Amino acid sequence: MKHRFLPVILAGMLTSCFAVVFNAVAQTPPAGTYPSAAQLSSRLKAITSRYGTLTNLQSIGKSPGGKDVWLLTVGRGKTAQKPAIALVAGLNGTHLAGTELAVQLAEKLLAASNQDSVARLLDSKTFYIFPSVNPDAQEQFVAKPRYERSGNGTDTDDDRDGRLNEDPFEDLNKDGLITQIRVEDPTGTFIPSKEDPRVLVKADPAKAETGRYLVISEGTDNDKDGAFNEDGAGGVALDKNFTFDYPIFVPGSGEMAVSEPEDRALLDFLYKAPNVYAVFTFSPHNNLSEAPKFDRTKTTKRIITGVMEKDATVGDQVSKLYNSQTALKDAPPMPPTKGNFVQTAYYHYGRFSFSTPGWWVPKAAAPADTTKGKTAPKPSDNDDVKFLKWADVHKVSDVFVDWKPIEHPDFPGHKAEVGGISPFARLNPPVSFLNDIADKHLKFMTAFVRQMPVIDVVNLRTEALSGGLTRVTAQVINRGLLPTGSEIGDRVRFVPKMKIELKTSTGQTVVSGRKRILRSPMAAGESMEVTFLVSGTGRANLEAGNAMTGTKSIDITLK
Amino acid sequence: MKKLFVLFCILLSTTTFAQQKPAQNDDLTGLRAVGSPANPKVPMRWNHYNDYAGITKFCQDMAKAHPNLVKIESMGKTFQGRDLWVLVVSDFKTGNVERKPGFYIDGNIHSNELQGSEIAMYTAWYLAENFGTVEFTTQLLKDKVFYIAPSINLDAREDFIKNPNNPNSPRSGMMPFDDDGDGEIDEDKYDDLDGDGNIVLMRRKTPLGRMKQDPNDPTRMIPAKADEPGEYEILGYEGIDNDGDGQVNEDLAGRYDPNRDWAWNWQPDYVQNGALFYPGTLPETQAIKKFIINHPNIAGAQSYHNYGGMFLRGPGAEEDQQFYNPSDVAVYDVIGKTGEKIIPGYNYFVIYKDLYTVYGGEIDWLALGRGVFTFSTELMTPYLLFRQKPTQNDEFNQFGKYLLFDDAYVTWKPFKHPQYGDIEIGGPKKNYIRNHPGFMLEEDAHRNMSFTLFHAHQTPKLDVQSITSKPLGNGLTEVTAIVINQRVIPTHSSHDIKYKIERPDYITLKGASPLAAMIVENADLNITREQKNNPATIEVPNIPGMGYVQVRWIVKGSGKYTVSVDSRKGGVVEKTQ
C-alpha cells in the first residue's frame, strides 16, 4: 500500500495568499437559525451531491434517539490511505455553533476545491468531519420546550433515586423556553447585579450585601425531593462519557465510561483509522489559544495526566499558528472537563488533540478617552453581564427573557418571576456571526495541514562490494514542520510507529542491518541514516513513513 | 403471625417432593457416597475439559432434564459468533425468579484457564441434581437464582483445545491484531514443529548456554551453578520466524486481555497491558455487561481464573482502595476466611496488594461499578500436588513422575530448526501446570463450588419480622414494622449507598392510607426521621447484613396491615398482620 507524495511543494507554501482565496469564495451564510437533525442531514447530503467525488457521507451509528451520527469524509481518491485530520463537533449538545462551524468549514473548503492549492490539499490529505456526534441533545434546540440539553436519548435516572425522568423542566410562562425562576425569599442569596440588573449575582457579605432571591430552574419540584428539575428527559452527556479522567456516578456521566453508542461509534472509527494524524474538536473547551503547559510531575507516574514535554512544544507552535491565522483574541480559558473527548483523543488515542469553542463573546473595546477625573467603568468580570452587553451592542435580540411574575405552586405567597438568558444563547450567536469565524478557522486548519510531516528519502548511495554484495545507505527525513507523531502516541499501541523498510525481491537477502525498522516519532526536520548490506541483484525498494505521515518509496538497483 | 411467603414456599415444595421419587439409590450397584448425586439425570464425568460442543450439549441437556430448575439463555455472541451460554438455575416453581437475589458465575475469561468452566458447570449440575434430596440445595434454589456462564471466552477456548498451544496461550481472545506494528496481522504465530498439538520449549545444546538438565529429573531444566559450565540455552516456545523479520512468534492470535476490558478505572494499553480501545471493546464484554445490568437482582458474583490458589477481592489498583469501605471489607472477610477453611492451600487475598495491579478488571466493575460483592478465584495451586506448601520447585515434575506416569511432559526430542539448526523440543504439555490433572478436577470443583455456595447463601434474605400497632388517640394508629436481613451481605454495599448505584429498598404499607411515614432510628428514645413524600412507600437506603431496619407509619383508623418489601438485590417479601 504505497502512496507516493506529490513533489513536496505544499509544506513551504505561504499561507497568506490562502486567506485571500478563501475569502474570495466564502459562501453566503446559511439564512436563519441552527438546523434540526433533519435539516443538518439534508445539508450534508446536499454537500455530497454537489461535490460527489470529493466527499463521502456515511452514518457511523445511530443515537439512542434513532438519529444518524454522520461522518463526512472530504478528500480525493483513496481517502483511507492518506494522512488525515479528524474534525469533531456537537459532542456537547449545547454547542450548536461548533456543528455549524464544522459544516461551514466543509462547505468552504469544498467551494475552494477548484483552486490549485486546495485541490492539492484534497489530493494529499483527508478530512474526517463529524459535525454532530450528539444529535439527540442538539435537537432540543428545535423541540418544545427549548432547553440546554447535554444528554442523549438514553434513559437515565439522573438523581439515582430509582425513578426515571420524574422531575423535568416545566415551561411555566409558556414562552417555549426554559430559563430561570427567581423567588423573593428571606433565605435567598442572590441580588440583581449593579452592572446589569437583569443579571443575578451572589450577595457578597463583604460588601454589606444581603440576599433577596432564590434562583432555580424553570419548573416545579414534581417529586417533592427538594431539588428542582433534576431528572428530566436527557440521558448521558456524551462529552462526560469518555475514558480519560472519567467521572464516576455524576449526573450525565452515564453508568460507565463509553456506555453510549455515539461515543463507541466515534472511537471505533478513529481507532481503526491509523491515518488520523491529529484531532480537532469544536467544543466549549479551549486548548488552542493557549496551549497546556508541560508539568514533569504529571508525566512520570504510571497514569499520565499532563502533556508530554515534546507535545507541549508542539502545542505552543500550533497555538501560535491558531492565534496568527485566526487573528482571534481574548479567548476564554475554558479548562477541560472530566471524561471529555478532547483529552481522551490525546491521552488514550495518542493523537495531537486541539479544541476551541470557535466563537466566544469578544472583549468589550476599551473606552477611547478617559477624561480627567472621570474614569470610564471597567469592563465587567461577570460573563452574563459581558454577554448581554455584547448582545446589546450588536442588537442581538431574543437573548434575554425579561423577568415576569408567575404563580409558582411550590412557593405560595411569594413573588416568583421567570426570566434570564435564553437557552443556547451564551454559546451560540446568531448563525450570521459564524461566517467570518468559519473562514478564520478554515485558514488555520489548512495552515495546520500544510505543516504536517512530509517524509522524504534522500542521499541514496549504493556501493557495490565484491561477491554480489551491495551496501545501501540513505537518509530518511521529516521535511514537514510538525513531528511524525505525538510523544504520547509513541506509547499507544494503536498509533502506527514510524516505519522504514527495505523491501527485497526474490534472491535478495539483507545480510546486515534490520530489514524493517520501527521507531519513535521524528521531529520536524529530523533525519536518520539507514544502512543495509544486501546480497543479490535486481530491484529493491526503500520505503519510509506510516499511515499518519504518508510513505515515501524509492527504487534501488542492486548490480 | 403467619408468614405468607414461607407458607407459599412450603406449599410449592411439598408439591415438588410429591412429584419426585426418592432418588437415593436408583441405578446404583452399591451405596451412594455422601455429597454426590446418586443418579444424575445428566450423567457427567468431571475429569476432562469440554470444548464448545461439549459445553453447549451440557447446557442443553441440563435445561431438558431439569425444565423446572434450569433454563438456557445466550447472553450474546462471541467475536467469532459462538453463543455465550448462561444457565439460569433456580426453583422456577417457587416465587418470581427474576426477583430473587441473584448470583452470577463465570469462568474462562482467560481462554487457557479452562477449569473455571468445568467448575461453573459442576455447580449448575450439582445444584439441579441435588434439588429435592439435599435440603440446603433445595432451599437455596427456592431463595436464589444462579446465572452460570461456563465460559465467556469460547473462541479462544476452542483454539486452546483444538489447536497447538502452550499452557499460557492464548490468554487473549481471537480478535486479530497487528502485535508488532509491521502492518501485518497475526503473521508470526507459534509453530507446532512436531505436530503433537502442544507448543513446548525449544532448547539447544551449547557450551555457551547457562542452563542444564536436572540430573534427577529429565523433564526439568535448571540453571547451571555459578561456577560450573552450562549445557543448554532455552530458545523459547516452539516456533519459527514465519515472516522473516528476525523475530520468532512475535505476532500471535489476539494478544489482548479480556479482563482489562471493563469499565472501572479502565486504562489504556501503555498503562495496563492488554487493554483495547475503551472498556467494552470486545463483543463478549458488551454482552455480559448488558446481561448484568439487565439483572439488577445480582447480589453476588464469582469469576474463575487460574492459577495460584487465591480467593481474590478487589481493588485491582491501589488508588481504588478508598472505595472498599470497612463495612464492605468486613463482608469480604467473612466469606474469604471461610474459603481458606473450605480449600486448604487457597488464600484470601487482595488483588493489588497480593497479586499485581489490574486496571479495568471484570471484578472491579462488578464490585465498584455495580455494587456486587465479587470474588475472583485463582484455581489450582502446587499445594494440592502433595498437600503441602511447595518447597523444592520440582513438585510438578515429581508429581508428573509419581502420579501421572510421564503423561504430563513431552519428552525432549531432536528437531532440525530452519533458523536455530539442531535443537530439541520438549516440556510441559499445554494442559498441565495451570489446569488440574483429571482426577483432581472433581474434588477441586466441589470445594470451589462449596466456597461459592457459601458466598451465594450469604446474599440477602429478607423477612418482615414484625408488624406492631399502637393507638395514638384521635383515631390515629402508629404502625411499626421491622424488616430483617438474615444474611451477611447487605442489600446495598456501603460503596453502593455512597454513590447511589442501586435504588433504595422500598417498604410499602398496604391496606391503610398512611398520613405520615418515618424511619425509626432509635425505637427506645423515639428518634425518627420523617419521609415527607409518598408516605405509603418508605425508601430505606439499605437493609444491613445480619441487621434490620425499623419503619413506622401513622394511619387513620386501625385494621389489618400488609407490609411488603421490594429490594433489587434482596428480593421481595410480604407479610400481613
Automatic annotation (TrEMBL), chain B:
Species of the source: Larkinella rosea
One GO MF term: metallocarboxypeptidase activity
Active site residues per record: 378 (proton donor/acceptor)
GO terms classed as biological process: proteolysis
UniProt keyword annotations, A-Z: Hydrolase, Metalloprotease, Protease, Signal, Zinc
Biased composition (Acidic residues): 177-190
Annotated region described as Disordered, given as residue ranges: 159-190
Alphabetized InterPro entries for the sequence: Peptidase_M14
Signal sequence annotation: 1-18
Gene3D superfamilies: Zn peptidases
Pfam families: Peptidase_M14
Coiled coil: none
Similarity remark: Belongs to the peptidase M14 family.
Cofactor(s) the protein requires to work: Zn(2+)
Name used for this protein in its record: Peptidase M14
Listed SMART domains: Zn_pept
Keyword Zinc attributed: yes
Entries under PANTHER family matching the protein: PROTEASE FAMILY M14 CARBOXYPEPTIDASE A,B (PTHR11705), SLL0236 PROTEIN (PTHR11705:SF143)
GO (cellular component) term, any one: extracellular space
Top-level lineage group: Bacteria
Entry-linked CDD domains: M14-like
All residue ranges annotated as the Peptidase M14 domain in the record: 48-403
